[in-house]
Design brief:
- This protein is of the alpha+beta class.
- The chain contains nine helices and 15 strands.
- The strands form four sheets. A seven-stranded antiparallel β-sheet has the order 3-2-6-9-10-5-4. A three-stranded antiparallel β-sheet has the order 1-11-12. Strands 13-15-14 form a three-stranded antiparallel β-sheet.
- β11 and β12 form a beta hairpin.
- It is elongated and about 75 Å long.
- The mean pLDDT is 92.
- The protein binds flavin mononucleotide (FMN).
Protein backbone atom coordinates (compact mmCIF):
# COMPACT_ATOMS: atom_id res chain seq x y z
CA UNK A 1 0.00 0.00 0.00
CA UNK A 2 1.39 3.40 -1.01
CA UNK A 3 1.57 6.32 1.40
CA UNK A 4 -1.48 8.59 0.72
CA UNK A 5 0.78 11.45 -0.36
CA UNK A 6 2.29 9.14 -3.01
CA UNK A 7 -1.03 8.05 -4.54
CA UNK A 8 -0.99 8.38 -8.29
CA UNK A 9 -3.90 10.84 -8.88
CA UNK A 10 -5.03 9.11 -12.08
CA UNK A 11 -4.96 5.67 -10.50
CA UNK A 12 -6.82 6.98 -7.42
CA UNK A 13 -9.46 8.54 -9.69
CA UNK A 14 -9.81 5.23 -11.57
CA UNK A 15 -10.36 3.39 -8.29
CA UNK A 16 -13.04 5.92 -7.26
CA UNK A 17 -14.68 5.61 -10.68
CA UNK A 18 -15.62 2.00 -9.87
CA UNK A 19 -18.37 3.50 -7.71
CA UNK A 20 -21.39 3.94 -10.01
CA UNK A 21 -23.36 7.14 -9.47
CA UNK A 22 -26.18 9.07 -11.05
CA UNK A 23 -25.47 12.41 -12.71
CA UNK A 24 -26.87 15.72 -11.47
CA UNK A 25 -26.83 19.33 -12.51
CA UNK A 26 -26.85 21.75 -9.58
CA UNK A 27 -28.17 25.23 -10.32
CA UNK A 28 -28.43 28.51 -8.49
CA UNK A 29 -28.45 32.26 -9.22
CA UNK A 30 -25.73 34.87 -8.89
CA UNK A 31 -26.53 38.05 -6.97
CA UNK A 32 -27.43 39.78 -10.26
CA UNK A 33 -29.96 36.99 -10.99
CA UNK A 34 -27.86 35.24 -13.66
CA UNK A 35 -28.46 31.47 -13.81
CA UNK A 36 -25.42 29.37 -12.81
CA UNK A 37 -25.08 25.59 -12.92
CA UNK A 38 -22.64 22.71 -13.12
CA UNK A 39 -22.61 18.94 -13.53
CA UNK A 40 -21.90 16.98 -10.34
CA UNK A 41 -21.91 13.27 -9.56
CA UNK A 42 -20.82 13.83 -5.94
CA UNK A 43 -24.48 14.13 -4.95
CA UNK A 44 -25.74 11.91 -2.16
CA UNK A 45 -28.62 11.61 0.24
CA UNK A 46 -27.82 12.47 3.87
CA UNK A 47 -30.92 12.45 6.05
CA UNK A 48 -34.59 11.59 5.70
CA UNK A 49 -35.80 13.54 8.74
CA UNK A 50 -35.06 16.38 8.28
CA UNK A 51 -34.65 15.77 4.52
CA UNK A 52 -31.05 16.62 3.58
CA UNK A 53 -28.69 16.02 0.64
CA UNK A 54 -25.07 16.89 -0.15
CA UNK A 55 -22.71 17.40 -3.05
CA UNK A 56 -19.20 18.79 -3.39
CA UNK A 57 -17.74 21.46 -5.63
CA UNK A 58 -14.10 21.82 -6.65
CA UNK A 59 -12.45 24.90 -5.18
CA UNK A 60 -11.22 25.87 -8.65
CA UNK A 61 -14.72 25.75 -10.20
CA UNK A 62 -15.75 29.08 -11.71
CA UNK A 63 -19.13 28.77 -10.02
CA UNK A 64 -17.69 28.36 -6.50
CA UNK A 65 -18.05 32.02 -5.40
CA UNK A 66 -21.70 32.01 -6.51
CA UNK A 67 -22.58 28.72 -4.76
CA UNK A 68 -20.64 29.78 -1.64
CA UNK A 69 -22.98 32.80 -1.29
CA UNK A 70 -26.18 31.17 -2.52
CA UNK A 71 -28.96 30.65 0.04
CA UNK A 72 -30.72 28.19 -2.28
CA UNK A 73 -29.85 25.70 -5.04
CA UNK A 74 -31.63 23.02 -7.06
CA UNK A 75 -30.30 19.50 -7.75
CA UNK A 76 -31.50 17.81 -10.96
CA UNK A 77 -31.09 14.03 -11.30
CA UNK A 78 -30.58 13.68 -15.04
CA UNK A 79 -32.60 11.23 -17.09
CA UNK A 80 -30.98 8.63 -19.35
CA UNK A 81 -31.32 10.87 -22.44
CA UNK A 82 -29.73 13.98 -20.87
CA UNK A 83 -26.04 13.10 -21.37
CA UNK A 84 -25.60 16.02 -23.82
CA UNK A 85 -26.96 18.37 -21.15
CA UNK A 86 -24.55 16.89 -18.62
CA UNK A 87 -21.64 17.58 -21.01
CA UNK A 88 -22.86 21.11 -21.57
CA UNK A 89 -22.90 21.86 -17.83
CA UNK A 90 -19.50 20.21 -17.34
CA UNK A 91 -17.80 22.63 -19.77
CA UNK A 92 -16.59 26.02 -18.68
CA UNK A 93 -17.23 29.12 -20.68
CA UNK A 94 -20.42 28.58 -22.64
CA UNK A 95 -23.91 29.85 -22.03
CA UNK A 96 -25.07 26.71 -20.28
CA UNK A 97 -28.73 27.74 -20.09
CA UNK A 98 -29.11 28.83 -23.76
CA UNK A 99 -32.38 27.50 -25.18
CA UNK A 100 -33.41 25.71 -21.97
CA UNK A 101 -36.97 26.16 -20.79
CA UNK A 102 -37.06 26.54 -17.03
CA UNK A 103 -39.83 25.85 -14.53
CA UNK A 104 -40.68 28.21 -11.68
CA UNK A 105 -40.14 27.41 -8.01
CA UNK A 106 -40.58 29.40 -4.77
CA UNK A 107 -36.84 30.06 -4.32
CA UNK A 108 -36.65 31.30 -7.95
CA UNK A 109 -33.57 29.13 -8.60
CA UNK A 110 -33.35 27.67 -12.15
CA UNK A 111 -35.38 24.46 -12.47
CA UNK A 112 -34.51 22.41 -15.60
CA UNK A 113 -37.13 20.22 -17.33
CA UNK A 114 -37.03 16.57 -18.43
CA UNK A 115 -35.13 15.21 -15.40
CA UNK A 116 -35.76 12.00 -13.44
CA UNK A 117 -36.05 13.91 -10.14
CA UNK A 118 -35.43 17.42 -8.83
CA UNK A 119 -34.65 18.63 -5.32
CA UNK A 120 -35.06 22.26 -4.28
CA UNK A 121 -32.67 22.97 -1.42
CA UNK A 122 -31.78 25.64 1.12
CA UNK A 123 -28.09 25.79 2.00
CA UNK A 124 -27.75 24.29 5.48
CA UNK A 125 -23.98 23.79 5.91
CA UNK A 126 -20.72 24.15 4.00
CA UNK A 127 -17.66 22.11 4.95
CA UNK A 128 -14.03 22.09 3.89
CA UNK A 129 -13.31 18.89 1.98
CA UNK A 130 -9.69 19.04 0.77
CA UNK A 131 -9.76 20.53 -2.73
CA UNK A 132 -13.58 20.60 -2.65
CA UNK A 133 -16.26 22.38 -0.61
CA UNK A 134 -19.06 20.12 0.61
CA UNK A 135 -22.53 21.64 0.40
CA UNK A 136 -25.26 20.21 2.58
CA UNK A 137 -28.78 21.34 1.80
CA UNK A 138 -32.16 20.98 3.42
CA UNK A 139 -34.69 19.79 0.85
CA UNK A 140 -37.63 22.20 0.74
CA UNK A 141 -39.36 20.68 -2.30
CA UNK A 142 -38.91 17.86 -4.79
CA UNK A 143 -40.57 16.09 -7.69
CA UNK A 144 -39.87 13.00 -9.77
CA UNK A 145 -40.89 11.29 -13.00
CA UNK A 146 -40.71 7.65 -14.10
CA UNK A 147 -37.96 8.43 -16.63
CA UNK A 148 -34.96 6.16 -15.87
CA UNK A 149 -31.85 8.03 -14.70
CA UNK A 150 -28.50 8.53 -16.39
CA UNK A 151 -25.61 6.76 -14.64
CA UNK A 152 -21.85 7.40 -14.55
CA UNK A 153 -19.33 4.62 -13.93
CA UNK A 154 -15.66 3.99 -14.89
CA UNK A 155 -15.55 7.48 -16.40
CA UNK A 156 -18.44 6.85 -18.81
CA UNK A 157 -22.16 7.41 -19.00
CA UNK A 158 -24.24 4.29 -18.48
CA UNK A 159 -27.86 3.25 -18.21
CA UNK A 160 -29.29 1.25 -15.35
CA UNK A 161 -30.60 -2.29 -15.62
CA UNK A 162 -31.98 -4.29 -12.74
CA UNK A 163 -29.98 -7.46 -12.34
CA UNK A 164 -31.74 -10.52 -13.66
CA UNK A 165 -32.19 -13.30 -11.12
CA UNK A 166 -31.44 -15.70 -13.97
CA UNK A 167 -27.73 -14.90 -14.33
CA UNK A 168 -25.55 -17.43 -12.49
CA UNK A 169 -23.24 -15.71 -9.97
CA UNK A 170 -21.37 -16.64 -6.82
CA UNK A 171 -23.33 -16.49 -3.58
CA UNK A 172 -23.07 -12.91 -2.33
CA UNK A 173 -22.18 -14.00 1.23
CA UNK A 174 -18.98 -15.78 0.26
CA UNK A 175 -17.79 -13.23 -2.30
CA UNK A 176 -16.23 -16.15 -4.13
CA UNK A 177 -16.60 -16.27 -7.90
CA UNK A 178 -17.86 -19.49 -9.49
CA UNK A 179 -15.17 -22.09 -10.10
CA UNK A 180 -13.91 -22.27 -13.65
CA UNK A 181 -15.56 -25.24 -15.34
CA UNK A 182 -13.30 -28.26 -15.20
CA UNK A 183 -14.53 -29.92 -18.40
CA UNK A 184 -15.73 -28.62 -21.74
CA UNK A 185 -18.79 -26.42 -21.36
CA UNK A 186 -20.08 -25.95 -24.89
CA UNK A 187 -23.59 -24.83 -24.04
CA UNK A 188 -24.92 -23.06 -20.98
CA UNK A 189 -27.91 -20.95 -20.10
CA UNK A 190 -25.66 -17.86 -20.00
CA UNK A 191 -24.36 -18.35 -23.53
CA UNK A 192 -25.01 -15.13 -25.40
CA UNK A 193 -26.01 -16.94 -28.58
CA UNK A 194 -28.61 -18.97 -26.71
CA UNK A 195 -30.02 -15.88 -24.96
CA UNK A 196 -30.20 -13.87 -28.19
CA UNK A 197 -31.69 -16.71 -30.20
CA UNK A 198 -34.26 -17.61 -27.60
CA UNK A 199 -35.24 -13.97 -27.05
CA UNK A 200 -35.63 -13.53 -30.83
CA UNK A 201 -37.76 -16.65 -31.28
CA UNK A 202 -39.92 -15.97 -28.22
CA UNK A 203 -40.55 -12.46 -29.52
CA UNK A 204 -41.29 -13.58 -33.08
CA UNK A 205 -43.59 -16.37 -31.87
CA UNK A 206 -45.95 -13.78 -30.45
CA UNK A 207 -46.72 -12.20 -33.83
CA UNK A 208 -46.09 -15.20 -36.09
CA UNK A 209 -49.89 -15.78 -36.22
CA UNK A 210 -50.12 -12.45 -38.10
CA UNK A 211 -47.51 -13.69 -40.61
CA UNK A 212 -49.40 -16.96 -41.05
CA UNK A 213 -52.74 -15.25 -41.50
CA UNK A 214 -51.29 -13.05 -44.25
CA UNK A 215 -49.31 -15.97 -45.82
CA UNK A 216 -46.00 -14.13 -45.39
CA UNK A 217 -42.77 -16.08 -44.84
CA UNK A 218 -40.07 -14.81 -42.44
CA UNK A 219 -37.92 -13.88 -45.46
CA UNK A 220 -40.77 -11.89 -47.03
CA UNK A 221 -41.37 -10.17 -43.69
CA UNK A 222 -37.72 -9.03 -43.61
CA UNK A 223 -37.99 -7.85 -47.22
CA UNK A 224 -41.20 -5.88 -46.67
CA UNK A 225 -39.86 -4.29 -43.46
CA UNK A 226 -36.69 -3.24 -45.30
CA UNK A 227 -38.68 -1.58 -48.09
CA UNK A 228 -41.00 0.06 -45.56
CA UNK A 229 -37.93 1.94 -44.27
CA UNK A 230 -36.21 2.62 -47.59
CA UNK A 231 -37.47 2.36 -51.18
CA UNK A 232 -37.06 2.04 -54.06
CA UNK A 233 -34.08 -0.32 -53.88
CA UNK A 234 -32.23 -2.25 -56.57
CA UNK A 235 -31.81 -6.02 -56.31
CA UNK A 236 -28.18 -5.44 -55.27
CA UNK A 237 -29.25 -2.99 -52.52
CA UNK A 238 -31.83 -5.46 -51.22
CA UNK A 239 -29.25 -8.25 -51.18
CA UNK A 240 -26.69 -6.19 -49.26
CA UNK A 241 -29.25 -4.90 -46.71
CA UNK A 242 -30.62 -8.39 -46.13
CA UNK A 243 -27.27 -10.19 -46.02
CA UNK A 244 -27.31 -10.42 -42.21
CA UNK A 245 -30.60 -12.36 -42.15
CA UNK A 246 -29.22 -15.28 -44.14
CA UNK A 247 -32.26 -14.97 -46.45
CA UNK A 248 -31.10 -14.64 -50.05
CA UNK A 249 -33.20 -12.35 -52.15
CA UNK A 250 -31.93 -12.34 -55.73
CA UNK A 251 -33.64 -10.88 -58.80
CA UNK A 252 -35.91 -13.91 -59.46
CA UNK A 253 -37.01 -13.86 -55.79
CA UNK A 254 -37.88 -10.17 -56.08
CA UNK A 255 -39.77 -10.83 -59.31
CA UNK A 256 -41.67 -13.59 -57.51
CA UNK A 257 -42.62 -11.08 -54.78
CA UNK A 258 -43.90 -8.81 -57.57
CA UNK A 259 -45.95 -11.71 -58.96
CA UNK A 260 -47.42 -12.17 -55.45
CA UNK A 261 -48.43 -8.48 -55.57
CA UNK A 262 -46.21 -7.59 -52.62
CA UNK A 263 -43.80 -5.45 -54.67
CA UNK A 264 -43.82 -3.42 -57.86
CA UNK A 265 -40.84 -3.01 -60.15
CA UNK A 266 -40.07 0.17 -62.02
CA UNK A 267 -37.29 2.04 -63.77
CA UNK A 268 -36.21 1.67 -67.38
CA UNK A 269 -35.10 -1.94 -66.92
CA UNK A 270 -37.69 -2.71 -64.24
CA UNK A 271 -34.78 -3.21 -61.84
CA UNK A 272 -35.91 -0.96 -58.96
CA UNK A 273 -38.35 -2.33 -56.40
CA UNK A 274 -40.92 -0.72 -54.08
CA UNK A 275 -43.83 -1.95 -52.01
CA UNK A 276 -47.08 -2.41 -53.89
CA UNK A 277 -50.24 -0.98 -52.24
CA UNK A 278 -51.05 -4.54 -51.05
CA UNK A 279 -47.45 -4.98 -49.80
CA UNK A 280 -47.71 -1.68 -47.89
CA UNK A 281 -50.96 -2.74 -46.26
CA UNK A 282 -49.51 -6.16 -45.38
CA UNK A 283 -46.38 -4.78 -43.70
CA UNK A 284 -48.40 -2.16 -41.81
CA UNK A 285 -50.55 -4.95 -40.36
CA UNK A 286 -47.54 -7.03 -39.35
CA UNK A 287 -45.64 -4.08 -37.86
CA UNK A 288 -48.74 -3.12 -35.87
CA UNK A 289 -48.85 -6.68 -34.48
CA UNK A 290 -45.10 -6.54 -33.71
CA UNK A 291 -45.51 -3.15 -32.00
CA UNK A 292 -48.29 -4.54 -29.84
CA UNK A 293 -46.02 -7.43 -28.78
CA UNK A 294 -43.25 -4.92 -28.05
CA UNK A 295 -45.57 -2.71 -25.96
CA UNK A 296 -46.66 -5.75 -23.97
CA UNK A 297 -43.05 -6.83 -23.46
CA UNK A 298 -41.99 -3.35 -22.30
CA UNK A 299 -44.95 -3.39 -19.93
CA UNK A 300 -43.68 -6.67 -18.45
CA UNK A 301 -39.98 -5.70 -18.39
CA UNK A 302 -40.40 -2.08 -17.32
CA UNK A 303 -39.08 1.02 -19.02
CA UNK A 304 -35.72 0.94 -17.21
CA UNK A 305 -34.88 -2.57 -18.44
CA UNK A 306 -36.06 -1.93 -21.99
CA UNK A 307 -33.88 1.18 -22.31
CA UNK A 308 -30.90 -0.84 -21.03
CA UNK A 309 -31.72 -3.71 -23.43
CA UNK A 310 -31.98 -1.38 -26.44
CA UNK A 311 -28.67 0.19 -25.46
CA UNK A 312 -26.91 -3.18 -25.14
CA UNK A 313 -28.38 -4.55 -28.36
CA UNK A 314 -27.18 -1.44 -30.25
CA UNK A 315 -23.73 -1.91 -28.69
CA UNK A 316 -23.75 -5.51 -29.89
CA UNK A 317 -24.91 -4.56 -33.40
CA UNK A 318 -21.98 -2.14 -33.66
CA UNK A 319 -19.52 -4.65 -32.19
CA UNK A 320 -20.59 -7.41 -34.60
CA UNK A 321 -21.24 -5.24 -37.71
CA UNK A 322 -19.50 -6.80 -40.73
CA UNK A 323 -19.83 -3.46 -42.58
CA UNK A 324 -23.50 -3.51 -43.56
CA UNK A 325 -25.08 -0.53 -45.32
CA UNK A 326 -26.73 1.86 -42.86
CA UNK A 327 -30.49 1.42 -42.92
CA UNK A 328 -31.64 4.26 -40.68
CA UNK A 329 -29.33 7.06 -41.79
CA UNK A 330 -30.19 8.71 -45.10
CA UNK A 331 -27.77 7.89 -47.94
CA UNK A 332 -25.62 10.77 -49.25
CA UNK A 333 -27.50 12.66 -52.01
C1 LIG B 1 -20.23 13.22 -14.88
C2 LIG B 1 -19.53 14.41 -14.26
C3 LIG B 1 -19.55 14.59 -12.91
C4 LIG B 1 -18.91 15.68 -12.30
N1 LIG B 1 -18.98 15.85 -10.96
C5 LIG B 1 -18.41 16.92 -10.38
C6 LIG B 1 -18.53 17.13 -8.96
O1 LIG B 1 -19.19 16.38 -8.26
N2 LIG B 1 -17.93 18.22 -8.43
C7 LIG B 1 -17.21 19.10 -9.19
O2 LIG B 1 -16.69 20.08 -8.64
N3 LIG B 1 -17.07 18.92 -10.54
C8 LIG B 1 -17.67 17.87 -11.14
N4 LIG B 1 -17.58 17.69 -12.50
C9 LIG B 1 -16.84 18.69 -13.29
C10 LIG B 1 -17.63 19.99 -13.46
O3 LIG B 1 -18.93 19.76 -13.99
C11 LIG B 1 -16.88 20.94 -14.40
O4 LIG B 1 -15.60 21.20 -13.83
C12 LIG B 1 -17.60 22.25 -14.68
O5 LIG B 1 -16.88 22.95 -15.66
C13 LIG B 1 -17.71 23.13 -13.49
O6 LIG B 1 -18.41 24.28 -13.91
P1 LIG B 1 -17.90 25.75 -13.56
O7 LIG B 1 -16.42 25.80 -13.82
O8 LIG B 1 -18.72 26.62 -14.49
O9 LIG B 1 -18.23 25.95 -12.13
C14 LIG B 1 -18.21 16.62 -13.11
C15 LIG B 1 -18.19 16.44 -14.50
C16 LIG B 1 -18.85 15.34 -15.06
C17 LIG B 1 -18.84 15.16 -16.57
Amino acid sequence: MANPSEFDPKDFRNALSMFATGVTIVTTRAEDGAAVGMTANSFNSVSLQPPMVLWSLAKNARSLPVFANAPFWNVHILSNDQDALSNRFARAGEDKFAGLELDECPSNMPLIRGCSARFQCRTAFQYEGGDHIIFVGEVIGYDRTDTPPLLYVTGQYAVAAHKSGLIATAPAETGVRPEAASGPDPYSEDMLGYLLGRAHYQFMARFRPALKRLHISDAEFFLLSLLSVRQPLSAADVASHMAYTGCEFDLPALQAACARDLLVSHGESQDMFSLSPAGTETILHILAAAKAVEADLIGNMGQLQSIALRNLLKTMLTASDPGLPKLWTAPAP
